[in-house]
Structure prediction request, 224 residues.
Amino acid sequence: MKKRSIIMVIVIGFCLIALPGGATVYVSDKLEVPLRTGPSPKDRIINMFRSGQEVVVMSEENGWSYVRSIGESDDKKGWILSRYLMNREPWETRIKAITIENARLRETLYPMEGDLRELKTQNTDLTRALTEKTEALEALRAQHESLRNEAAGFLDLKRDYGKIQSDLTNRETKLAEIIEENGLLRSSHRNRWFLTGALVLLVGLLIGLTIGRREKKHASKLYL
Prediction:
């Protein structure tokens, strides 16, 4: 019993600290709280405040609060136990507010969900297109690498062809020179044989003339 009294004093003290005069507070989550003509359980009940009723604390006395109701056509004034008042909104009021806010957010989010689905579809299409472009790029890179290797081989062949062409030109030049020299040699050889033949013929002719003259002289001596 003593412990319960101490706890009650602490609660009342906390209420006195937490509920300054003129503050707007709420009736606690208890379903109904009596509003009395005075700060005593013996005073007459003039009204019943339901949970969530908003009131203004006018003054406090021995764990009781003199309050005025808010949000009604006729303000109701009276005394209510301070422990039935709290600074936060009741859970029921907060749940209703959250439910209303949730419904409002759903109405706001519904078109956004459609936009999100459309964006996901576009993202899927873009991802597919990006994959296709990436594969095409890789194919082009491979083709470019192949062409570059083939071009390098072509350049090597072109260089070898130029070298062979140069060698062929040099050989053709040397062959022309050899042919020309050969022609000159042949011409010189023919001339040499021609001169030799002419010389032999001339020598033979001279020998023949000499022998003829000798025979004529010898014959003439025989006739004498």
